[in-house]
Amino acid sequence: MKKEVILVPKEKCPLDVLAEMGDAVSNAWIFLHENAFEKLWKSADSHRRDNTMNGPEEATLKWKKTEKYPETNLICEVPKCTWAKIQMIKAVDIAYDICPNDPADIYFLKME
Predict the structure, then answer these.
(1) I want to staple 84 with a disulfide (CB 3.0 to 4.6 A). Which of 51, 79, 105, 106 is the partner?
(2) How far apart are the first and last CA of the chain?
(3) Domain spans in the chain, listed from the N-terminal domain onward
(4) Which long-range contacts (CB under 8 A, 24 or more apart) does 72-81 make?
(5) Are 105 and 5 in contact (CB under 8 A)?
């Protein structure tokens, strides 16, 4: 199992980095650093926070389709202690779908 911290350049979006990683993210746990979560939160076309019955607070973020990017939907934990796990990403350019139970790799995305 590979565990890797990926530093996302300030001028890039964490979702672009995931798209560039291709199939490597398809069977992985992906965690966002609170600074990567904040960048996504600010860039989303719409977002909301939801309380869950027995788990951590979750965030749903959505981006509309543009000429450059596909429609994208993301659900992840809201960071409480620096890192938050991505639960789901729906985007045609990102190989990740739903968080697996038994991942092959673990990636941590943090803004530079």
Answers:
(1) 79
(2) 24
(3) 2-48+58-111
(4) 72/15, 74/15, 74/40, 76/32, 76/37, 78/37, 78/49, 79/32, 79/33, 79/34, 79/37, 80/56
(5) no
